[in-house]
Design a protein that fits this description.
about 40% helix; alpha/beta; Rossmann fold; six-stranded mixed beta sheet; about 350 residues
Length: about 350
Amino acid sequence: MTLKEIAKEANVSISTVSRVINQKNTKAASPEVQERIWDIVRKSGYTPNATARSLKFGKNTQIQDAVPKSIACIYARSNSAVSDPFFSQIAKSIEQEAFKSNYFIRHSFTAMDIANPDISRQLAQFPVDGVVILGRYERKLLNFFTQNYKNVIYTGLNPMGNQYDQVVCDGSDISYTAISYLAELGHTRIGYVGEQNNEVRFSGYKEALAKLGLPFFQKNAANVRLSADGGYKGANTLMHNKADISAIFCANDTTAIGVIHALKEKNFRIPQDISVISVDDIETAQYLSPMLTSVHIPLEDLGRITAKILIDRINGGHRLPMRTILPFYIAKRDSCCKLSRNRRTFADLTS
């Protein structure tokens, strides 16, 4: 497929397509149009002509470099490669950065795909030059990749050992920052909703409480999947347990969405009765009511730097494992406020 054909299918000019895929102007088109263009690029398998690009931009590119290379993305924590807004945004950034170096995303699949023998066999038969693992993975999954692929990198919030390249925002530090902010607002009883097993946001939550001299009670924590449904169930578990809390730390924004829905069903005011803080700061967070306070993770930078490091390894630029830790900050909005003594608690709920 050519740029002209992409432009025709996307119903835009050739120059708009060129600016979008070469990322020369971030305002070349609306987000919706940019996504439409990238979707066509992705489905068609379009790759730029590296030799032509080198002539255009004055780069001394060898002819053999004109052959496009491929990478794969594995959604290690998701059942769907498109349903997770956090990792989907990272994957999109990886794709766009890789495209600059004449790489394309050949496969996007989930841990469930790998667990299927037929699918895993097919994947092994179609090699790629590098693999990105998105999110915390199980040892079996890592074994599959190290047996079948030479170049592997991880990105997410759970730092994973020291054997492989990784680009992370440290989930333990994130938890401490979130809990500290709630403590500054006067909250001393803070709950948790999210996954607990092998999850640094949960261990970080407990460590933060200990460092700040605040108590931890198991009844104040709900172990649920990171999803809106999980958050809804988790909030109801806390209410059922009469959790003694004035604030809830959610492991991610989609979980917080479910938590807020459950609290509102029981007529709790947010944040007057219960403050809610979460992690990721996906686009939806600022459109909730109330607007969600969330720890902002630089998703585009996670993807962009991950692609750069993976490509550098593929090209032999480095051999030792690299760990790159990116900064984060709290996007302070309306779902958190100072502790109110005149508030409704879970103890006020009737059975």
